[in-house]
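Bumping with the actual sequence this time:
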Amino acid sequence: MTSEGWGTPPVEPISQHYIVCGGNALAHRLAVELVEHYEVPVVVLVPDRTRDHAPQIEQLPGVAAVVEYSSVTEEALRAVRVETARGIALVDGSDQENIHTALSAQDHNPGIRIVLRMFNQRLGDNIERLLRNGTALSGSATAAPAFAAAALSRPNSVQVGDRFLHIAYDEDIDSSRICVVADRIDRQDLSRIRLLPEQEGDSAPFVRLASAFGDDGPVRRVRGAGPGGAGPEPEPSADPAREPAAQPDRAAQDRAAQDRVPEQRPGQEPGQEPGGVAALQALPSEPPIRIGWSRRLRWRLLDTLRYFTSARLRLVLITALAAVLMAFGLLWYLNRDFGWSLYVSLLDLAGAAQPDQHADAAAGTGTGGTWQRVAQVVITFCGITFAPVATAIMVEVLGSGRRGQPRNPGAGTRDHVIVAGLGNLGTRVVAQLHGLGVPVVGLERDPQARGISAVRALGVPVVVDDGPLEEQLRRARLKHSRAVVAVSGDDATNLEAALEARAGKPDVRVVVRLFDDNFARHVYATLDNAASRSVSYLSAPAFAAALMGREVLGTLSVFRHVLLIAELRAEEGGALVGMNRHDLEDPGGVRVIAVRLADRPHLYTWNYADRTRRLEPGDRIVVAASRSGFARLNTAVVDET
């Protein structure tokens, strides 16, 4: 490995290039995004050529140079020609290191575009004020919603104005559909999926039928060719020599023509090939979570009790409370007076009741019989128990600092999500699920993992153990869970967690973080009720767009494909001014789904009908685009400006 201060020789003189600092998965995907889709020169600065994703980055055909430095120093920035670069992306290292590098790059090149990865989003927002032309993004924050939504079998959504956009499949597609975003969906062969396929008009099937009959043949009646299935009658041929020897059966023609038109699925556009279909839909509110309020309330109460007490204290409290309730029920049964029974029970519980005197009991003037006295004794002794238990709870919480101690899931944990791997992404996923009111249990092998303290601060139980994964899942109460989300940094470990989870509970929902597409294809082909996501695949398009000066509102996943939702503004003198919907969608991979006109900036017009109206300065458009489609659109805008 090259040590700091030595480095590799500077790259050949180059300008107007983009620099990617890092050798991790995000750096790899970002380099691919810039090279393949934006077609710009890229120089990658890696800490070690032999580790992580650096060897794969060196094999990318469009990368201009790969430079090795153990850390991003002033010398390293000069080696990658930061003074002549158009942009730099810092996607590795800690928040502090990235901030320092961003400020150094700005000193070398005041006009450079800077995109830095920050885990602390609040700090990132403040750092953006120090940068003249910079953006702070979080890869885990971009990808976490997709993982959380997949765990709940709930569509991930992106908010645009007052609507929430999400992806619906096949039978779930309804009248709120905006456009079809994918077809040819086959779980056994995900390579067949077409993202944002070319759209055809309603007349396309009729044009194909006419072409199939040929230009020289007579026009025949075709079922469905006109209103009510009636079409034009065959015209007699003017030349008897050209008259066919035998006319085929008309019913057979109708059946043949019908067979040529593939059966359409719900939401399928005319002319699309058969297979699963995905559509972009808009909802007035975010899709609800399928967890009943009573179940959430019970989990909250049990979790609060577990938060303040240990298992032994809970056993004492529950036993004493059960005894008090049984004694109160006995008093109520003997006296048939609820108010008086409650009054006596509370006095006994506080130790303030007046017992029967022996003379009163002998004369029959006591307050109750033998069973009533037994009940009062039980309540009194239980009341004596509550005082020291309450004191022990206060000492344990305040004195011993229980808030930071490990806490395993209790026996009442039900219908929860197990998140395996508490790194940056795992911490984000736990926080999001917890914020939605979903019970969560964390699972981590490394006791020094940075996310453990953050998860415990939320009151979420964590299983920390480096033993067999099967035992860890058992302690996390896999048998009673609803989903397992494996989001460690290693594909093999995540796949192992998914398979172990399925072995322990065959019907559990599994969400796996995988970088390798081959792994992902096998997961979809062999496991039902499973989903695969890639952090770098979901976040790299947003980083690339930010590096080009474009803002992405969010990303939606169609299996392993990414759909970007972005809003673009037509600036005075910019390339968007004068373009219409046809111009924007012509390259393919782009759909204009909403327009905000300059004179009505707060009104979103969905599926703007006028395809010929040209954009004016101040107009805004919301687009749904594939990675390549958005890159082409962005490149066209940048080139013309």
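The tokens above came from a reply further down the thread. The longest strand covers residues 177-185.
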